[in-house]
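Open question from group meeting: does this chain pack into something compact, or does most of it stay loose? Before anyone orders reagents, we agreed to write out a predicted structure and look at it together. Recording both the input and the output here so the notebook holds the full record.
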Amino acid sequence: MPKLWNQTIEAHRREVRDAVLHTTWALVTEHGLASVTMSQIAEKAGIGRATLYKYFPDVETILVTWHQRHIDSHLEHLTELRDRPGSPVQRLEAVLEAYAFISQHRTHHGAELAALLHQGEPVLQAQEKLVDLFRDLLTEVAETGTLRDDVAPDELARYCLHALTAASGLPSKAAVHRLVTVTLAGLRPPR
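Structure tokens returned:
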């Protein structure tokens, strides 16, 4: 097949996948996981059921794919912040703040959906990538002498991640900024 034809087919497949992912998420958040069927998804996405089944075997697989794409987007954003120009401390502050805001906006619309989305190897791998990202940045900060040296960077990375998940219940940007400030204070060398 000509290159242009292949690009057109790939673009179409990407558009169909995107439509299915977004449609499914919208339906599940509006009606609940148990209420959504493959027929509803196909109808709302504007495709046939047979086409939908060529892409995904069931609603759960669609949601897990949507969630993985969401996680990948967050990891990419955090990596860009970590790798941008600036001092290690400035980059750490940017990463901590971004992760706190990601945590603040995290919603799963019920325990059943949260349980579905937070299981399996891909989620564990993403968590380890987060720990690695934070640890690497904290190691850079340690070289500046502005990071406590009585706790290993790996442990401090986990501390940051767990501390900042508290942002999920915070009502405002100001509250998130205060949480980041407190987290940063816990990283400074003891007096």
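Observations to bring back to the group:
Residues 81 and 95 are 6 Å apart (CA to CA).
DSSP finds nine helices and no strands in the chain.
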